[in-house]
Design a protein that fits this description.
Two copies of one chain form a homodimer. With about 250 residues, chain A is α/β, with parallel strands linked by helices. In chain A, about 35% of the residues lie in helices and about 20% in strands. In chain A, helix 5 packs across helix 6 and helix 9 (about 205-210) packs across helix 10.
Chain lengths: ~250, ~250
């Protein structure tokens, strides 16, 4: 098993690795929203790249059956039902609903990797479950941080580093780490006792605090809140029927 | 002052930062060779992308006045005078000579950044001097690791992290670090007491050991051997006349 991590979000080359698992991560906040929403009983999530596409896709469904969610410049989009705070995506709102989501980095990342075969949705909320799934599937892994408008993201890389740390500790046979995945593991080791410290050092974390979303940093730093492993396939994120709903994240207060 | 580091070698966008210093790093081994050769009195270095170009450029000069150096798959190129071990580039061979150099990653990196205005050549041999120059110039900095055939390079990033560490400690006014440059600094802090450990963990370090160049790892881990700050301008690497020649690296034995 080889684990690689791609630090900048451009389309990877699946022909080089036809049979691997890709784990998409956007801790602040898209994949945290997705994992939490699915754990709260959302039916499915359709990640789209643009606001226009979100409204367009919504027209196909009954208005009551869907929710429009996401952000631009961290803020809720005019005409949308929900913003991009995981705490908004609770069972009372999302259970049984189809979500159409568009965010600056996270939802675009799914389109960059869409030609891959196995695509999982990861955040600190479910990284233990992702590691367990990766052990069962036993394929090479590409961790795909969504980045920050094309740039390296500290918090996403640390989250990827948590997956690497869990796998190197749990797997009995050896794992090959690239230079990049060694780097991610070292970053995780540096911050694992205080993920919030890392969030507050990161560019995007500072931006969220500046815009009044500091509470979301506390929320998104919670680890292993759910056993849910959402999968992205044919443009839609779903959870297999055998998986149970998880716990709701704690309020940050 | 902002310090950024670009983890993968693709052309940066100088129009976004028209006035900054770029520091190119290929610790194993191209920029270590360059810094050492210049400290040993080489007249200038012409980095070229291909072997064919090296032979072509050589035709312009008297054969005695030039040396062809570099590697493919870590080995000396047939018909070349020197390989890619810094220890080969000693005064007895290089003093007063013009070098034409081609390597897998390092010399290509110079062509990727060639539209930038201030381009410095860095390695562990001269990172203290590079830091001093950056403090004097007082511009934004882009650290440009040459990478490993397009991939993230652990050893180059750690060397960039040393520059960040030196500048954040020496500069009195604050420095803005991107997520990527914070990552590089953390990697340097993790390995600064044992750079060789990092080299032996890195993909390229392992490759060099496998091919019999393990001694070069010991050589390239030596810090602050010279005050030389080579500059790349108009396709040529030179050292300004005011700089003195530095020390020769120690033998690894």
């Amino acid at each position: 098993m080889q684990i690689d991590i791609q630090f900048q979000p451009f389309p990877p080359n699946p022909s080089l690795h036809p049979d691997r698992v890709v784990v998409v991560i956007d801790v602040l906040r898209a994949t945290s929203v997705m994992v939490h929403a699915m754990s709260q009983g959302a039916l499915e999530i359709i990640p789209v790249a643009t606001v226009e596409e979100a409204f367009q896709r919504a027209q196909v469904f009954l208005r009551d059956a869907i929710l429009l969610g996401g952000e631009r410049k961290s803020e809720k989009i005019p005409g949308f039902d929900l913003g991009n705070s995981p705490r908004e995506y609770i069972a009372e709102k999302v259970k049984g609903k189809r979500l159409i989501l568009t965010t600056t980095n996270g939802t675009k990342a799914f389109h960059l990797v869409s030609s891959e075969s196995d695509i999982l949705v990861g955040s600190f909320f479910n990284m233990g479950a992702i590691a367990q799934r990766c052990l069962e599937v036993n394929k090479d892994i590409l961790i795909f941080p969504s980045g920050d408008e094309g740039n390296f993201s500290l918090e996403d890389t640390i989250c990827g580093g948590m997956l690497i740390e869990l796998l190197t500790k749990k797997r009995e046979s050896p794992i090959t780490l690239t230079d990049a995945s060694q780097c991610a593991q070292i970053l995780y080791q540096r911050f694992k006792a205080n993920l919030l410290e890392a969030f507050h050092l990161s560019y995007h974390g500072k931006e969220l605090v500046r815009r009044g979303f500091g509470e979301d940093l506390v929320t998104c730093a919670q680890i292993d809140m759910t056993e849910i492993v959402p999968e992205f396939k044919d443009g839609v994120i779903r959870v297999s029927q055998t998986q149970k709903a998880g716990c709701r994240v704690q309020n940050a207060e």
